[in-house]
Amino acid sequence: MIWKIAWKNIVHRPLNSILCIALIMLGTGIISLLSIVETEMGNRFKNNKADIDLVVGAKGSPLQLVLSAVYHIDSPPGNINLEEAQELMQDPLVETAIPLSYGDSFKGNRILGTTPEFITNYSGILKDGRFNEESMEVVLGNNVADQNGLELGGSFYGTHGEANDGHVHDNAKYEIVGILEQSNSVLDNLIITNLESVWEIHGHYEGSQSSNHNDHDHDHDHDHDHEHEHDFDHGHEHQEVNTEDLEITALLIKCKTKIAELSLPRRINQETNMQAALPGLEINKLFSSLGVGISTVKFVGVSVVFMAGFSVFLILLDRLKRRKSELAVMRTLGYSSAQLFSLLICEGIILAIVGCGIGLIMSRIGVYIVNSNGVDSLNFKLHYSLVHSEVYLVVLTLSVGLVSAFFPAIKAMRTNVSSILKSD
Amino acid sequence: MSETNNIIRTNKLSYRYEDSIPIQFPDIHVDSDTPLLISGESGSGKTTLLHMLAGLLTPLEGTIMLNDETYSSYSESKKDKFRGENIGIVFQEAQFVESLSVIENVTLSPFAEGKEKAQRVLERLGVLQHQSTKTNKLSTGQKQRVSIARATMNKARLILADEPTSALDDKNCSNVIQLLFEVAKSNNSILIVVSHDKRLKQFINNVVEL
Description:
The complex is a heterodimer. By secondary structure, chain A is an alpha+beta fold. Chain A folds into two domains: about 1-45 and about 290-420, no CATH class; about 55-275, no CATH class. Chain A has 13 helices and 14 strands. Chain A has helices at about 1-10, 15-50, 60-70, 80-90, 115-120, 140-150, 195-200, 260-270, 280-320, 325-330, 335-370, 390-415, 415-420; strands at about 55-60, 80, 95-105, 110-115, 125-130, 135-140, 155-160, 170-180, 190-195, 205, 240, 245-250, 250-255, 275. In chain A, a hairpin with a 7-residue loop joins strand 7 and strand 8. In chain A, helix 2 (about 15-50) packs antiparallel against helix 9 (about 280-320), helix 2 (about 15-50) runs antiparallel to helix 12 (about 390-415) and helix 3 (about 60-70) crosses helix 9 (about 280-320). Chain A is elongated. The two termini of chain A are about 30 Å apart. In chain A, about 45% of the residues are buried. Chain B is an alpha/beta fold. Chain B has one domain (about 5-210): P-loop containing nucleotide triphosphate hydrolases (Rossmann fold, 3-Layer(aba) Sandwich). In chain B, helix 5 runs parallel beside helix 6. The two termini of chain B are about 30 Å apart. The interface between A and B is medium-sized, with 27 and 39 residues.
């Protein structure tokens, strides 16, 4: 009955109630949306880091190198020489090294030349088909296949660079031999091929079984007149290649020991033409910078929630003045002072619950808008499910509602019924 | 006198407001067969007496017994429960919870009987058609009827009416007092009316002057 009366009291004066609810909704909505973004980014960066201790690439911004080679959301700072990279791959401190080579895309999805270990590193599982073995064979990430309507057995031409309007390599058709299951990692948005495909398309390399590679004239500046045996397993038995000219974009390295994680980057940075970056460190730096912005907006959200709490307090106090005789009548009908206390507390909590509930709904609408308007470039989608920090948000909002109602509730409890009802 | 007659007795009641001398009240002994009118000028202490009878004020000295229960000495929470179960109060100016409808106000008490009884009582008092209306839409007379209906919803053994007719014209005064008699009689309730309205003396013979 107390809850029913509390609800009716809230509905009876809708303008006051709407103001409180709107403020609570605004505060919780802001905090909730930021929590979702923060959590999703954190998870996604953590998942995509996989088992990578070091990223080695061209000298330049280490953050750019990490973002481009690990998260695939930026252009690489440049390329590195294959021979130099191979030397590093043989280093006794290196446990595994995955070479990456890219520069082309299909409808905004990066075409990545790499070794089979790359897919293994992200625990990629085939949904259809098989893994790529020959040059110009590709395995598609789940989102790439879904969003572009690509199917097993189909083919497409890559575009130079990552823009949709770049030069189309219409002399080299990629064959789709496999599609990966959704992995919620970078794999979902990548087109995986072998390194030789990337080299072939850009004229650095000529594989013996490049059946899809047309013979028509193509503008490349490199000669291919050397025979070479290299370390990458690509299914070819014979290649003609000038290894001095071959380049890759980056190496993803897992070190054998923790000490190697510290010593190897120092050596690479000092003694080679390459740069080594630690993904964990760079992402922590990035998050520290982003964190300031997120914390500022969250602070605004929390302030709005507390403002809402203050408005709940003022409104309940004002209502209490108007409703003294109502509360006195309730006492004459057998309601205890504790029940009157509960009534006001219920009103505060209902306002908080409704405001918080609408705030959470609004944040989901925000998620929908964000997802619809492009976080594709960041390679992730926000999820609608409740994130851990939102549980604290709900508790905080309910506490604010409860505390705001506490003082008016105490006053209601101490109402002197006799003096209010006196007509003598 | 019926077998289950209810009786209220007071014994040497007094009350003191802060910084004033105690007010002494005459003893009252009344049963459900005979309504009682407590009369007196403004400031004579009749509402104070009514509030003590209702358990809203605790006497400085003396006792109040309803049948065999000396409820004047109960704790606040026990008095709240006792009041809810046994006492119905009608005020000069009917007070309601504004956000609730007539029927919701009538059944507001945690000790009130169900909606069906409320509808029967409202029908008997001629305001059933307003059961879904908000109370601020009612006339003064209708409000007073709803207030009387509410006072009887807990099978009250004691009905206290505080200046129930002071704001009414003669016709409505007569109607309201007859309604109170009727409701008290049908519930076998003791009826105590506190008023300075001299018109009531023609309806109630048992009068205590303060």
